[in-house]
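Notes from the 1:1 (GR / supervisor)

We went over the backlog. Supervisor wanted to see one worked example end to end before approving the batch request, so GR pasted a single chain during the call. The sequence is below; no edits were made to it. Supervisor asked that the structure be written out right there so they could see what the output format looks like.
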Amino acid sequence: MDESRKIKIGFIQMRCTAEKEKNVEKATRLIRELAVKGAQIVCLQELFQTVYFCYEENFSHFGLAEKNESSTFQHFSQLARKNKLVLILPYFEKRADGIYHNSAAVIDADGSRLGNYRKIHIPDDPGYHEKFYFTPGDTGYMTFKTRYATLGVLICWDQWYPEAARITSLMGAEILFYPTAIGWEHQEDETSRETQLEAWRCIQRSHAIANGVYVVAVNRVGREKLTTFWGNSFISNPSGKIMCMAGQENEEAGVYELDLNHIDIYRTHWPFLRDRRVDTYQLLDKKWID
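Structure output shown during the call:
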């Protein structure tokens, strides 16, 4: 097989503070460490520049947002170019006065910006008041043809929807990246915690299996306000096997090699895409079926 289809994926699972500059400095240091280890594509966690401010509805938090051509982006574009890295860079986007998105930019290995995905599914739960801050994304599902692979990027709450994974895979994604901020409320019991964590792993592994793609889930870690973020960032192969996984409490920056030639092997042996009956799926465009 063509050795050029082997690539190294890096992920960064880190704690965040209220000091934006320190979060950016830490991410920069960890990206450089991953580059030394041979990483070619690096994904950061959802809203990595800040604490997870959506635990409350507070108008002052809108001041954390950035335009999509800020000095922060220039910094990471230079970092990507210097280290020949593809970067998946989540951020709180100010699109215009009164319009904000939960977004992720994809920067190619030459430092060029390939595009900007805006989170489509926006949750509203205790401790996750995202509808207060974020306008649902209007980019549609997207793929990004980078120097090393064709990527799909979906953000956190998007990860629970098989439709999003399917469409992005059908558009050509070889790897689905899910930058994430998910955790437990501090008072939850151990059984509830285990159940939620296993469901989170299971749904994303199922996307890998059903679509014959690699899945990379990158979560934050540590205690913030109402939530203990559970880490457990992982990479799944197209058969749903977890190939590497970070811990539950510690910051980690890991690298793992994937062989993209295996995608065709999995899809040939488990031909789920071949056997789809698209002529029977018309009811999927309805919110509810009475």
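Supervisor's comment: The chain has one domain: 3-276.
Batch request approved.
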